[in-house]
Amino acid sequence: MLVDDFGRAVSGVRVSLTDRCNFDCVYCHNEGLGDTRGPMDAQDHEMDTDDVVRFLEVAREFDVEAVKFTGGEPMLRQDLEEIIRRTPDGMEVSMTTNGTFLPGRAPDLKAAGLERVNVSQDALDPDDFAQITKSGAYDQVIEGVEAALAAGLAPVKLNMVVFEATAGYIPRMVDHVAANDGLQLQLIEYMPELVGNPEWAVDIDRVHGWLEEQADRVEHREMHDRRRYYVSSEDGDGEGMVEIVDPVENEEFCANCERVRVTHDGKLKGCLNRGDDHRPMGGMTKPEIRETFRETVANRVPYYGEYLVEEDGEWVLNEKYVRKPATADD
């Protein structure tokens, strides 16, 4: 595996297959690119099937163990099953989706090699769901979750972005996953640095505290230094797992990050929050992709934050975020 200057081995990649989406979620940051979405028809700048597979083959050469396909909405790609089928052996394949296209396609995705799905579900009320997603597809999402479970894609993680509009639904969502076998809950901290509207943010530490009070047990997960909370259902017959993704101002989260990302138009990037390190791979040969991969890993920064600051009208590196770890000789 490639290891960056801060001792983090890159064991996973997150590949955006498109920036198109049939939702218009108010919190969307489109893999850190902002609102770049255009027409719903396939776009020339999207990586084609061979581009995606070529990159994954190179990633596997570097012992990358897992790939997560994202978007936009990755299921708008009609070649998704082929991409999954051609993903190199030895790579775990998962996907983040809004779930609306899972009915009818979940069995084929499973047969192609998909192992897990994360489904975005931010509320248990159709009207509030529509306000957040700008979509009336609540029922289709519920059907999509059921289709994924029926196809054997369990456990299905429900992704819920935690901000002002959704925080009140956390207790109900926790009860929901505790009462339904095969479901887990992933609470994702709202990121105003990428989306704006900082007034929407809530104190994620309060969410941690509340979950700790509710949980029967708490498990530490090495990846990203996350905690998993196991909460019993109201009738005591079930148990739900809840995990919080909280990268904002969290040095420990970044210190355990083992992923690099690929944008929908084929650019490698070392961090979700960076826009200055994109390395295009379009038209590259495998040797060129290998070198680009090495460069991306070598240029990773240690901490999600303001890695560039403005001084006298110019953007300069913020030493707080690019400092290298101390050595025994320091």
Question: Keywords, please?
Answer:
330 residues, alpha/beta, TIM Barrel, two-stranded antiparallel ribbon, disordered C terminus
Annotate the secondary structure layout:
Blueprint: E1 12-16, H1 49-61, E2 66-70, H2 80-85, E3 92-97, H3 106-112, E4 116-120, H4 126-133, H5 138-150, E5 156-162, H6 170-179, E6 183-189, H7 192-195, H8 204-214, E7 217-221, E8 226-232, E9 239-245, H9 251-255, E10 259-262, E11 267-269, E12 279-280, H10 286-298, E13 308-311, E14 314-317, H11 319-322
Parallel strand pairs: 1-2, 1-10, 2-3, 3-4, 4-5, 5-6, 6-9
Antiparallel strand pairs: 7-8, 8-9, 10-11, 11-12, 13-14
Helix pairs in contact: 1-10
Task: Provide a concise account of the structure shown.
The protein is α/β, with parallel strands linked by helices and 330 residues long. It has eleven helices and 14 strands.
The CATH superfamily is known as Aldolase class I
With strands numbered from the N-terminus, the spatial order across the biggest sheet is 7-8-9-6-5-4-3-2-1-10-11-12
Do you know the CATH architecture? Alpha-Beta Barrel
Structural class label = alpha/beta
Supply the number of helical segments: 11
Low-confidence stretches: 324-330
Percentage of residues assigned to helices: 25-40%
Mean pLDDT: 86
* Percentage of β-strand residues: 15-25%
Stated plainly, the CATH topology is called TIM Barrel
Count of domain modules: 1
Assign the CATH class. Answer: Alpha Beta
| Amino-to-carboxy terminus distance | 27 Å
Rg (C-alpha, Å): 20 Å
